[in-house]
Each structure stands twice: as C-alpha cells, then as structure tokens.
Amino acid sequence: MEKECAKREVTQGMENQICVEFDAISENEGLARVIIAAFLSRIDPTVDQVEDVKMAVSEAVTNAIIHGYGEKGGRVVMTAKLSCDGELAVDIIDKGVGIEDIGQAMQPLFTTGADKERSGMGFAFMEAFMDRLEVESSPNEGTCVHMWKSFITGQIASQPILQAAVWNRSGRV
Amino acid sequence: MDRNMEEFAIIDNYLCIRMPGEVDHHGAASIRECADRLILDDKVKNIVFDFEDTTFMDSSGLGIIIGRYRKISCFGGKVYAINTNERIGRLLKASGMSSIIEILA
Fold it and tell me: With contacts defined as CB-CB under 8 Å, which chain B residues touch A117?
C-alpha cells in the first residue's frame, strides 16, 4: 500500500479504470454522462473537454439503446480508463443486433431511424468530439464503440510553468 | 409522460418552445409530441426554440429541430433558435443547421 502511494507521487496521476453496467433505457443516457464527467473531474479538465466527452458518450449510449436493442431493453456496459499520461479510453458495449455495414453506419446523415427523427449524426459527433473512434460489431452479437481522447495538453500547459516557478525559487516564470 | 405545457407558448403565429436543461433522446419524444400537437391544433406558422435553460444537447436535439422544420417549412414557416449558449450555437452552426434555421444567441 505504501509502495502504491509512493508510485502515485512519481507518476503524477495513477491509472484509473471504471466499469458500469446499466439497463438500456433512455433515462440512463443522462446517468452515463454524469458518471463520465465525474470520472474525469480528477484530472481537472476544461469545461469544453468534459462537454466533448459527455456528447460522445451520450451518442454512443443512445445508439446502443435505440439501434442495438431497438428500445426493447437490455444491458449497456460503459468502461472508462484514464492512463498515467492523461489519455481517456471509453468503451460503450451492447449485446444487441450489431451493425451489418459499419462503413455505411458511420456515414454522416445515414440513419435507420429516420421515422424516429434520428439525425444520422451520432458517429460523426463521436468522431468530431473525440480524438479517435473505432467500432467493432458483428450482426446478432453486439457492438463495441471504442473512443479515445487525450487530456495531455492541459497538463503540459500548466505543470511545467508551475515547476519552473518552484525550481528557480523566485515564484516567477 | 407529458411535458409541462408551460414550456410551450403560442404568441401570434409563433410557437415558442422552452427547451429543457439537457436535450437528449430521453426527453426528445415528449417535446416532439407536444410540439406537433400544437402545430396541428393551432395556426402555428413559425417555431422558436428557446435554449436559455439548456446546457447540454446531442444529436437528438438536431433531430427535433429538423423534424419540426420539415413540418412547417412547406407552409413557408421559419425556425429560430434563441438564447443559445456558445457551445450550442457552435454545434448548430457546425452541423449545418444555420442554413435552415436562424440562430439568435
């Protein structure tokens, strides 16, 4: 345990991982957003960064509920991992119908939910608001959406300046 | 799951819809149903979406706006988005919505 604490100081931010499983009902879209925002709060992200991730998670969870399970219920799993170097990896996993043609599904404005007034912008938003997006899917087995976003820029901007101020003991940079 | 009708007001031929704090798929259906009922019942020509209370919106919000736009634009109606915060304004512009609706921040 002591060893663990010492390591934490050296790496300035330990790896952290969560896994949440919830019912595939629309009420839980908001819950998923709140969970991911709370999970991120430890690394002190900007408001815009948090909103970007909330948006992407909201789209992926909504897709799982509407398209994966056809709004008939099921279970959605969200895993999130923050690595030591400040990169977030989020996976949204469902065991629903899967996607026949992933390339087509990811086309902006393509939707199978036109009758439900889906805009067809879900994957486009996930791509736009995260750094990287990968989709794995097999028909009748389910879909896994992997997303990554780096928060390293915030750390680079703030920490060296603070450290420099400490090192030259002037308090000024 | 009806929405509070105070969030919908008809002023002249404008239907004003006060959007909730978070616009997602969860709340989209009830906003759509209420709005469409009013569009049918009354002589609504234009629609104003008021985003004053809204801090979060995903693509479901775009679906609501596009759907209402389709319903009223064929009769020459216009759609407005008002009181959008910086982020929602940016989202509406980046997604090309500004070509079919008027955004007044």
Answer: 28, 32, 63-64, 66-67
